[in-house]
Amino acid sequence: MQSGPREIVTPFRPIPLDVPEGMKPNEFFNSTENLDDLTGNNGLLRNPEGLLLYRKALGHSNLFDTSIIYNTSKTILDPLGRPVRRTQVPEPVKNVWNRMNEILFAFMLERYPDAERHLVLCGEASLDATWPLTSPGVPSIRMLHNHFIVFDKAELAAAPLADPDNPNLTDGGQNSLFQAHLREVYRHFFDGLDLRVLRPCQPGSCRIALTGYPQGLPSWEAAGGVADLSDHRFWREYDVILKGFIDFYRAFFGQVSIRNAPMPEGIYFPDLVENRLLHNNTFLKAAKMVRDHCIGDAKYANAIRWQPAFKQLIYRNDAGKLIVTISQNSIGNAITELLGVVVRRAPDAEAYGRAEPALLEQLLEVRRRLVEADCGEGVATPYWGAE
User: Fold this and answer.
1) What is the mean pLDDT of the chain?
2) Can you tell me the distance from the alpha carbon of 26 to that of 143, in angstroms, rounded to the nearest whole number?
3) Quick one: pLDDT at residue 333?
4) How far is the C-alpha of 64 from the C-alpha of 358, rounded, in Å?
5) Hey, where are the domains in the chain?
């Protein structure tokens, strides 16, 4: 069977929301009114920390698909002022969120134990929008949220190959920039991080054979499997990888923006940045190349995400190992495309209705486990009760 990214069609029930006249859809989706609808029609569980578990109205998969959002819509009205990545979340909130992640991922592995039959993943994408909110590729709900998704590999195998030039697969050329010019510098930088639970994978060993993705990204194996998710150090190291990525990205695009720029403020690992990046000729040569390109190509310069843009996820590979990876850049916000799965959503209430009972049974069961673990209380909607 030919390996390559796949494009699947996922039916959904049209959302009963009217966008006010004069507003763009993604402007409205950032509003408190839309978040009220998300809670009232799709909310499953919420807690005092502001975390909301909800059914995805526009899902990636109708086999299993849910999200947790850090709902700050009523406490921070400016969409650009809300936390958009894990490093900006207060520690008490993140502690509860990590436990919710653990319970949800363990549930998915319990219900879908065969790595040959199902692709299981969870993770989040950067929402650091440096473009206007109306620009293509800017996330619709600009609040930190993560995804929990299961795909049927037989369905993926039967799906047509996706367009390899899909910008969400190619990351607009930025992925190839890192791979072509900074591969060794990038990996050497990550090798300096203090990781004990997560151990580096050999390049290419963690790809999903069916899709051939992820491509060219550093990855780490959770040596203890699902048990590692209950180890607080796992989540600390998950954050260390994110912090290391942010440092690398900020240092690189700082040099692109300003020749011989000083170290950015607030760097997490200043010694690593100083010793492995800011005096590295390969690193600075690549920055000059991008800077020169920006000066001569307005379209290219406008496409760059000047602030750290990423997708970070945990997934089960073909061998049943749990893998952590992080992308070098992201111009789209579909987490699935990091693993080579392009989702085309289609309005089809009847088809969605056939999948809905089995999906809801799982969502309500995992909600019960979260309530039992004191991670929140159930939310009642017109479709299910609070219990």
Assistant:
1) 89
2) 13
3) 55
4) 9
5) 6-378
